[in-house]
Amino acid sequence: MNNSPIDPHSVGIVETQHFTCCVPPDELHLKSGLTLGPITIAYETYGTLNDDKSNAILICHTLTSDAHAAGYHAGDKKPGWWDGMIGPGKAFDTNKYFFISPNVLGSCKGSTGPASINPVTGKPYGLSFPFVTIEDMVAAQRKLLDHLGIKKLFSVAGGSMGGLQALIWAVHYPECVHSAVLVATNYRHTAQQIALHEVGRQAIMSDPDWLNGEYYGKTIPARGLSLARMIGHITYMSDKSMDEKFGRKLIGKEKLGYDFSHDFEVENYLKYRASSFVQRFDANSYLYISKALDYFDLSEDGDLVSKFKKTQAHFLVISFTSDWLYPAYQSKDLVRALKANDLDVSDCEINSSYGHDAFLTEVESQSKLVTHFLNRLHREKFHGHR
Amino acid sequence: MNNSPIDPHSVGIVETQHFTCCVPPDELHLKSGLTLGPITIAYETYGTLNDDKSNAILICHTLTSDAHAAGYHAGDKKPGWWDGMIGPGKAFDTNKYFFISPNVLGSCKGSTGPASINPVTGKPYGLSFPFVTIEDMVAAQRKLLDHLGIKKLFSVAGGSMGGLQALIWAVHYPECVHSAVLVATNYRHTAQQIALHEVGRQAIMSDPDWLNGEYYGKTIPARGLSLARMIGHITYMSDKSMDEKFGRKLIGKEKLGYDFSHDFEVENYLKYRASSFVQRFDANSYLYISKALDYFDLSEDGDLVSKFKKTQAHFLVISFTSDWLYPAYQSKDLVRALKANDLDVSDCEINSSYGHDAFLTEVESQSKLVTHFLNRLHREKFHGHR
Questions:
Q1: B35 touches chain A (CB under 8 A)
Q2: Do B260 and A127 touch (CB under 8 A)?
Q3: pLDDT band at A5, cuts 50/70/90?
Q4: In B, which residues are within 8 Å of A229 by CB distance?
């Protein structure tokens, strides 16, 4: 990894690496009771791990994202998905910390998922891939950290589904987590979140090309996946950000067409984003991961507060005013449960019109909060004072 | 129409009537420049028209609703869609007023629409049905009122798309409208509203059974229409009302299934509501009417305020705190434009967790506002004092 000659704040050219574990007879025991193995985890790293391996920060991604969080893949013009936050001198400072960014189990971006070849059959798993939960994704990440020799994370950070993974880290492996940065996230999926995902899943599963998940090597269920992505995009933005970006602007037309072709820019935008998405994401992975999200409920036995009784981690919880997919009140509920455990919690609701996407776009305001939070913990841990 | 013997506040058993006009060579001139005829309008009436025909109130419905606003069809157990608001002694008091409730042009509930037989071909119109706008729906309603001999409406009332029709009445036929009750509505469809509709349309049009709209007599595009309805239902409720109604309740299961069958009540609810909807609504009508909504923009030439300069109507504008499909700020923008014309405007944002559906469910709070508004105008008009 070299810093780009043009941008001293970029981690430069990066490569995705792969780690394989749980090779039978060793297997990963899943929350469902089933097992899975072998498992490959795609991941990237940025910065340098220090000698006592105490400066590692795990970066966790969203439903459809991947291991490529920062820097550039050779030949690419677009950097990783959280590049504004990760790099030399940035909020997640690669001059100080070593970052590990794994692709989640169940995805299609290098880690084992339903599109992977089942070594037993020699064919893609499809729906024979066992159901994986957020807890299972985190269990697989722990195998990767064991492999890297990292016993305790200085921090674990993520937005949206990444925040859920960070929460599971703090709750299930309290001895491994010094701090957690939870952005635009919650502690359980609500009825509205489940409903929005369910429409996407029904869109995929009602596409005749889906073939009960056995479409590999044939036509992909592009229509269904495209619809799921369109719904997703609407939920990632806000009423206001859509109005500011598109309003009622027409696409290269003098006037309305009075037919069912596209008239408005927002219609074309959704179509364009959806059609690029179906080329890069696997429909079955969308089913698996969206359902894993819907299954997520840290309060499933009725008690959220007690979940944190074993953790001593420090928390930064960030939400955004216009995020209606993971509304700020959900972060506030989480903060209350953390504080009820007398934990060190910093929380902030950032004023933004960008909706859920704000965790990707509001770099400046997030950076201030993350920098301050990590600097304070860094001083305390490495210099013994506040 | 007889009042039910059981409920003195019901209009009792009602029947839908039909009126046909614009029989060629007479035709309705549409906003698109095309023409349509003949046109049949399904409608119901409640109460008694007074001698000088001055007590008529027009009731306008939503995207997927119909002429059956109040009372019971013979044999039915469920009353019309706004029965809580319309009846003897109710907010829309059939002891005082005569109500006309037409089904919109383009629908499939008795009025002429894409599923109707094109008299020229002897086959259903399908996509050869001309595009109709909210303005065209109102123009057809005016033909019905002419037929009934009603020159001026005491009021025109509607929620959601019904509010848009009421607005067009006030703006295009100012001499015909004494007052308007606009509930959970706006003056132009926003990018988010367009986007949500566009996903529904794409769902229908990407259903292989849609056959470019030529599915009549064959398999209906149930999968696509079902998806459109599921999205619709989510937008009609609120995060809070979904949480209160469903939360994370499981359907007859002890625990999560760890597969892609339904786990949560909210998933079953959406499926149930969607599957009953596809039996009662035409997919092409969904395309036409949703697009008519998206085309609606009273400020399309950039100036909303001047649109109301010819009207002397009195306005009641009601919105709901948790309505995110037609948010309250849109009603407030409309109220500002009305007040800039020095018009008599009463406006109220009702506190409710029911989302957009509140205009159907919050009967008590709406009734107070509507009763007070109509009583005041009634005293002024019929007794010459406030």
A1: no
A2: yes
A3: low
A4: none
Angstrom distances, CA of residue A69 to CA of A54, A58, A78, A79, A82: 21, 11, 11, 8, 5
pLDDT score at B381: 85
Rounded to whole angstroms, how far apart are CA atoms B200 and B107?
Answer: 16
* Separation of alpha carbons B25 and B170, rounded Å: 29
Q: Do B294 and A264 touch (CB under 8 A)?
A: yes
- Spell out the domains of chain B, with CATH numbers in brackets: 17-189+296-383 (3.40.50.1820), 194-292 (1.10.1740.110)
How many residues are given for chain A?
386
How would DSSP label each residue in B23-53?
Answer: -TTS-EEPTTS-EE-SEEEEEEEES---TTS
Give the residue on B whose Cα is nearest the Cα of A240. Answer: B192
For residue B199, the distance in angstroms to the closest alpha carbon of chain A comes to 6
Mean pLDDT of all residues in A128-145 = 98
Give the span between the Cα atoms of A173 and A138, in whole angstroms.
Answer: 10
| Two structure tokens written together for B307 | 């649109």
List the end-to-end C-alpha distance of chain A, in Å, as a whole number. 33
pLDDT confidence of residue B2: 45
Q: Nearest C-alpha of chain A: how many angstroms from B224?
A: 8
- SS3 state at B93: strand
**CB distance from A201 to chain B under 8 Å?**
yes
Is the ipTM value over 0.85, yes or no?
A: yes
pTM for this prediction:
0.96
The 10s digit of each residue's pLDDT in A332-375 is 999 999 999 999 999 999 999 999 999 999 999 999 999 999 99
Angle between helices A283-295 and A161-172 (to 10 degrees): 50
pLDDT at B4: 46
Binned at pLDDT 50, 70 and 90, residue A62 comes out as very high
Active site residues of A: 160, 323, 356
